[in-house]
Design brief:
38 strands, 7-stranded antiparallel β-sheet, 9-stranded antiparallel β-sheet, 763 residues, single chain, alpha+beta, 6-hairpin_glycosidase_sf, 22% strand, hydrolase activity, globular
Length: 763
């Protein structure tokens, strides 16, 4: 008997350490945790996410609100009180929100201020999924449930028996309006609260319909609550609706929708709910998410790996969000966040291309191309309405980050085969943005005149992060070069952008073997500290940005003295201590701290500039090192827990890195046809393309130890290359990985096995 108990104990320990293997997944949404990344704060990000209750790419998200009104950290896992349930459009806490308002049930006293109405809650009494949210509010003895559609939502609130049940509608500060219509059990209003990037006439109009008569009404303006008043406009207004409930568990249902166009349009958006019950909408939401997530099937991993995978995949399907609506005739229309007009056609927003050009948009191009086709149409409209392509839109042009990476987003889509939109207008937009400084430093190209004359943005002309801008502009010129070739543009134009693609060489310092800021006179800036964050670089240092030559790694190898020297330099990233110089910022920014505590040397996976670097060993004929570090990063830097990221999640980018990497390949150079091979995480995976074709990826002997590719077959034939082509994959492909515990140093080491580099073009 003791032996049986001992064996059972050993089994439990082994199961806990290794995790039960999930062979197949039938309802992927069941593996999604929307709380991953929510244990974050200003000084340390483990995702900086919130539990978005939404449909894929939905116009409106909902979230429980633990932070105060206007706090970008609207929901943090370590909070213990909820102040309301907020309609949100926030892409990140650093960008903050716009068009927000909140709903909150209250019992007892008529409390409407956010601190007074706040209630204790526990994660033990919280259910957080993409399509359904429920939480018990202890101070009010109320359970609140939410199910969303793209532009609307249903609330179901279960109250105790009481004469003092209330629902607070808070239209927030910075300008709002509320009107109660008791004979229709309806409330309308609007919020103008925003964080910038909106026209003067911006409003988020909302409409709410309750399923029962009101027993009393009060409206607040500022801190003053007045009964009998039905309408108010002011800096901060809202309403308090009184109900009497006759039994415990009595439910009050609310339908709510909003619009950036008008109250009439918000009422049209309510049709997404129609007469559907709460449970019907809940099941529809679950079905929609399962359908979207099922485009990628994985199996043969631990339950934590599957949870991590689908929680990351969920995050890749949120941004950029829809910013369009359907009018009374069913036509697609949008309020323009650029000129304030209501216009026909698609519009999307809330994404920063500096983050998402790297692999979020390439992921959409492979797996959800029909969605990115609409997004490209939206970019056409954005250019027509603002005169520029947005580099960071939320909802209009925002002045943050560097680069002109709309070039990559546009070029990669067309090169990957997306069609059906006005590519000529987008090409015109790319040329315009590539040769002019915009109305904001983050629009067009800051320092464009210097760059076009010298081939770089100088360090000493008061343009911050100049080396980062130069490196990104050179890559963006490559994206334009690629698109120009595809569109058969004049040879002179093609050659110009090809030449400009090599501008990265102007910043390479042979003395240190790193990228370095350069003054207008052609001399490198002094003093130079490669560990200095910011200054010439963006949210990183020279060790991070030196690798930002996505399109010409062979050219970088040549500058560094050959493949062996290059590989040694890559090794140094992991072996150097995580030292830093924060003098540019005057404080330790959260990105620095996240690198420091990760115990991976100078490798800062929590921020975007270096995320592709692990894959560069493939260009130096040492692909096994990519395989080792890709798996190491997936294993150590991602978890299905509230602290599950190693830095900002950033609109799907850091999630898409994991999803791509878990499948076994990654788009190092968007605007090319290639994906660089890493190391698959699962024993089985399948990508279901919208054409009906499938990409099947099998690694039956995959395990924690077997992280190296011993042999690879593509469509049944031995395959030694360190990349797949998009063209091959979208035809449908069967990829078989034979994994081993030791590196195979004879595979992928030929000159013909290395991925694309501009310097190798024609060779």
């Amino acid at each position: 008997m003791k032996r049986i108990i001992l064996l059972f104990s050993m089994y439990l320990v082994t199961s806990t350490l290794c995790g039960q293997e999930v062979k197949t997944v039938s309802n992927p949404v069941d593996y999604v945790s929307t709380l991953v990344g929510t244990l974050s704060k200003h000084s340390l990000s483990t995702g900086n996410t919130y539990p978005a209750i939404a449909r894929p790419w939905g116009m409106n998200f909902w979230s429980p609100q633990t932070g105060k009104m206007g706090d970008g950290w609207m929901y943090t896992y370590d909070a213990d009180k909820i102040r309301g349930f907020k309609q949100t459009h926030q892409p990140s806490p650093w960008m903050n929100d716009y068009g927000q308002f909140a709903i909150m049930p209250v019992t007892g006293a008529a409390r409407f201020k956010e601190d007074d109405r706040a209630s204790w809650f526990s994660h033990k009494a919280e259910v957080a999924t993409p399509y359904y949210y429920s939480v018990y509010l202890a101070d009010h003895d109320v359970t609140t449930e939410i199910v969303p559609t793209e532009r609307a939502a249903r609330f179901r609130m279960s109250f105790p028996k009481t004469d003092s049940a209330y629902v607070v509608i808070d239209a927030f500060d910075k300008g709002s309006y509320i009107k109660v219509i008791p004979n229709e059990n309806k409330i309308i209003g609007y919020s103008t609260k925003n964080s910038g990037g909106v026209p003067e006439n911006f409003k988020n109009y909302f409409v709410m319909e309750f399923d029962r008569d009101f027993d009393g009404v009060a409206v607040f303006n500022g801190e003053t609550l007045r009964s009998g008043i039905l309408e108010s406009t002011g800096e901060h207004v809202g309403a308090l609706i009184h109900f009497k409930t006759s039994k415990a568990g009595e439910q009050i249902n609310i339908k709510v929708a909003s619009s950036f166009i008008s109250h009439e349009q918000a009422t049209l958006n309510l049709k997404e709910i129609g007469n559907k019950s709460f449970e019907t909408l809940k099941q529809e939401g679950k079905d929609v998410w399962n359908e979207a997530l099922s485009r990628v099937e994985v199996g043969g991993g631990s339950i934590d790996q599957v949870r991590t995978f689908y929680s990351n995949l969920y995050r890749t399907l949120l941004f950029p969000r829809m910013f369009f609506e359907y009018d009374a005739n069913g036509k697609v229309v949008h309020y323009s966040p650029y000129n304030g007009k209501v216009l026909p056609g698609y519009m999307f927003t809330d994404t920063g291309f500096w983050d998402t050009f790297r692999c979020l948009f390439p992921f959409l191009n492979l797996v959800y191309p029909e969605m990115n086709t609409k997004m490209q149409e939206g970019l056409v409209n954005a250019y027509k309405e603002s005169g520029w392509l947005p580099e960071w839109a939320s909802p209009g042009l925002r002045n943050v980050m560097v680069g002109n990476n709309s070039a990559s987003v546009v070029a990669d889509a067309y090169i990957k085969g997306l069609r059906g939109y006005d590519i000529e207008t987008l090409y015109e937009a790319l040329l315009h943005g590539a040769n002019h400084a915009g109305p904001l430093t983050a629009v067009g190209r800051a320092g464009a005149d210097f760059y076009n004359k010298l081939g770089y943005v100088p360090y000493d002309v008061n343009i911050n992060e100049n080396a980062a801008r130069t490196l990104e502009y050179a890559y963006d010129d490559f994206a334009i070069y690629q698109l120009a070739k595809k569109l058969n543009k004049p040879k002179k134009e093609i050659e110009l952008y090809k030449k400009r693609s090599l501008n990265y060489k102007k910043l390479f310092d042979p003395e240190t073997g790193l990228m370095r800021g350069k003054n207008q006179d052609g001399n490198f800036q002094k003093p130079f500290n490669p560990f200095k964050w910011g200054d010439a670089f963006t949210e990183g240092n020279s060790w991070h940005y030196t690798w930002s030559v996505f399109h010409d790694i062979q050219g970088l190898i040549d500058l560094m003295g050959g493949k062996e020297a290059f590989a040694n330099k890559l090794d140094s990233v992991f072996t150097l201590p995580p030292i830093y110089d924060d003098s540019y910022y005057g404080q330790v920014i959260h990105e620095i701290r996240e690198m420091q505590i990760a115990n991976m040397g100078q490798y800062a996976h929590g921020n975007q500039p270096i995320q592709h670097m692990i894959y560069l060993y493939n260009y130096a004929n040492e692909p096994w090192k990519t395989q080792y570090w890709v798996r190491e990063t997936m294993n150590r830097m991602y978890l299905p827990t509230p602290d599950g990221y190693c830095g900002d999640e950033d609109n799907g980018q850091t999630s898409a890195w994991y999803v791509f990497s878990a499948l076994g390949f990654y788009p190092v150079a968007p605007a090319t046809d290639q994906y660089v091979i890493g190391a698959p995480l699962f024993k089985h995976a399948k990508i279901k393309l919208p054409t009906g074709k499938e990409i099947s990826l099998d690694a039956p002997n995959n395990s924690l130890d077997n992280r190296f590719i011993a042999k690879l077959l593509l469509n049944g034939k031995a395959y030694t290359k360190n990349f797949f082509s998009h063209e091959e994959l979208v035809k449908g492909a069967t990829i078989q990985f034979e994994m081993g515990s030791q590196p195979n140093k004879t595979r992928g080491v030929g000159n013909e096995d290395v991925p694309y580099s501009l310097s190798r073009e024609g060779k």
